[in-house]
């Protein structure tokens, strides 16, 4: 059940983040490329966050690992979002939303993993 909750949260956060910071398909098409094909990595790379953060939820250094995963998956998105006629904040926005998404997913996974331990330690 914990895995399903994390995957659903990942899909929801991906759709929201890509709606905010994914480059428009028309901007890619203006460069002579197929816009929807080049927009797909913005969805797919973000969907890799859930499987990446699930194993680190049990670690005490989950925050640092989730930030590292976010940087590793966010840098390619930030570099791909440097497109003519896109706002200058778009690469930074992509990187920041991937970082926030990875930390949020790791936090949710940690909360779902530790409810019995937290109650027993009080």
General form: elongated
Total number of β-strand segments?
0
% residues in beta strands: under 5%
Derived from helix and strand composition plus strand pairing, the structural class reads mainly alpha
Gyration radius from CA atoms, angstroms:
16 Å
How far apart are the first and last residues' alpha carbons, in Å? 25 Å
List the secondary-structure elements in sequence, H or E. Answer: HHHHHHH
* Sequence stretches where pLDDT stays below 50 over 5 or more residues: none
Count of spatially separate domains: 1
Report the total helices.
7
Helix content: over 70%
Provide a compact summary of the structure.
This protein is 76% helix and 0% strand. With 122 residues, the protein is mostly helical.
Structural description of this entry:
- This protein has about 120 residues and is mainly alpha-helical.
- It has one domain (about 1-120).
- It has helices spanning about 1-20, 25-30, 35-45, 50-55, 60-80, 90-115, 115-120.
- It is elongated and about 50 Å long.
- The two termini are about 25 Å apart.
Give the topology, please.
Elements: H1 2-21, H2 25-29, H3 35-47, H4 49-53, H5 62-80, H6 90-113, H7 115-121
Helix pairs in contact: 1-3, 1-6, 5-6
Question: Can you give keywords for this protein?
Answer:
76% helix, 122 residues, elongated, single chain, mainly alpha
């Amino acid at each position: 059940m914990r895995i399903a909750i994390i995957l659903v949260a990942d899909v929801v956060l991906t759709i929201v983040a890509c709606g905010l910071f994914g480059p428009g398909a028309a901007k890619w098409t203006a460069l002579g490329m197929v816009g929807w094909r080049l927009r797909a990595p913005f969805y797919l790379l973000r969907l890799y966050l859930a499987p990446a953060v699930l194993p680190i939820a049990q670690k005490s250094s989950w925050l640092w690992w989730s930030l590292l995963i976010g940087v590793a998956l966010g840098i390619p998105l930030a570099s791909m979002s440097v497109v003519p006629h896109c706002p200058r904040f778009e690469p930074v926005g992509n990187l920041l939303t991937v970082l926030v998404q990875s930390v949020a997913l790791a936090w949710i996974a940690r909360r779902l993993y530790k409810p019995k331990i937290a109650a027993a330690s009080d």
